Amino acid sequence: xxxxxxxxxxxxxxxxxxxxxxxxxxxxxxxxxxxxxxxxxxxxxxxxxxxxxxxxxxxxxxxxxxxxxxxxxxxxxxxxxxxxxxxxxxxxxxxxxxxxxxxxxxxxxxxxxxxxxxxxxxxxxxxxxxxxxxxxxxxxxxxxx
Length: 145
What we know:
- By secondary structure, the protein is α+β, with helices and mostly antiparallel strands.
- Helices cover 22% and strands 39% of the residues.
- The protein has one domain (4-144): Alpha-Beta Barrel (Multidrug-efflux Transporter 1 Regulator Bmrr, Chain A), CATH 3.20.80.
């Protein structure tokens, strides 16, 4: 596993929705939030980068959003979140989405073995869709404390 340690601050400005995962079913919660977000983005014709960003936070909270090219204003109902990672670990997962959870667990284990303390947020940035699941790309970012 090729996990990189990044010491350059990363700030991501996203709009979407947050919620609490029931019974640690993060993906079900995130999909619902993501679908709600895309409905508004498409209805309001908000120009966006087309990349889903999921942010895992303390207390079973998750945020599903997208980067927009312009501020959407107040009438959309979208929540605004700024992700600020002063130092983080980065890994590019290539393959089916069903293996992301295992990749994240492997990443945490490797970081722990290298003496790093992993914190939150944990961020998944989904690349553009590909019908060939073996070519799907998802960036995994873990805050380091």
